[in-house]
Write a structure and sequence with these properties.
This protein has about 325 residues and is an alpha+beta fold. The protein has six helices and 18 strands. Helices cover about 20% and strands about 30% of the residues. The strands form two sheets. Strands 1, 2, 3, 4, 5, 6, 7, 8, 9, 10, 11, 13, 16 and 18 form a 14-stranded mixed β-sheet that branches. Strands 15-14-12-17 form a four-stranded antiparallel β-sheet, with no helix packed on it.
Amino acid sequence: MINIEQLGRTSGYAHLHNSTDQSAWQNLRIPVHCLNGGPGPTTLVLGGMHGDEYEGPVAIDALAHLLDVSALTGRLILVPGLNLPAVMSGTRLTPDDGLNLNRVFPGELHGSLTQRMAHWVTHTLVPVADNVIDLHSGGRSLHFAPSMLLHETEGVAFEMGLKAAKAFGAPFTILLREDHADMMIDAIVERQGKVMIASELGGAGILTSKTALLAKAGLLRALASLGHLKTVDPVPETVLVRLPSSDAHILSDETIIFAPEIELGSWVSRGDIIGWQHRIDRADRPPQSTKAVYDGWIVCMAGQGLVHRNDVLAIVAHSVDSD
């Protein structure tokens, strides 16, 4: 691990032993950067928790190499590709053990590779940070309208997080309570009373110029809100919404090809057609419509044309103002 007390820009690697069939003494080297501008808050910024989500790694890598440290207040600890094996293979899960890094927190010191990654973050990185920003996208299976996410809690940390999330300037800022939160990094950070914000900046396994630019500019705006930088530019408008519980997501009942009828990020009223389900393997089944179950914003849809049973077709978020 690098010396995070050293002023200026320091880059290096965290080392995790990983013995495999192909490499008995492999030493996994995860790039870590510290930008230390002196007294002030410390913010940990993570990308690549899942390997098929690209906006975070790109934005953090650019920040690590291009930010003028002399303009920085406090300290940034930057990890562009946290789950490096997944990033390098373009997979959501760690190829070595098949685990989802953001479902094994707080991790295990003597566990599998993914569990040891989580343990390192829990016991080495989070304790020295005041704030944590974890940048995600939808991966291959989901496509999100670019959004910032934070768990709906109470207290100063939540208020600071909400301010920073809005400052990011994504089209949507989403409040949520996830039924699997206890397995995620969010729970580790929130239990310590620290600021925790995350993102869903696109998806479908691709990176676009629009989402890449938003990730880079939005990260700078969020860091300015947390006291690291001067305000860099005007903050775009964001819509504050609340995500329903997972049992209210619109799921597919069988394997189909899903054809969206409307643009991601659109407002819908109950009964509006969101898209069409095509059963290409059935000669006797015409296309079936998928309809909104209540009023709200379409913040997420299936990321690929082929959708299997129990996969998400769409998620409709409530407008907080209308609650």
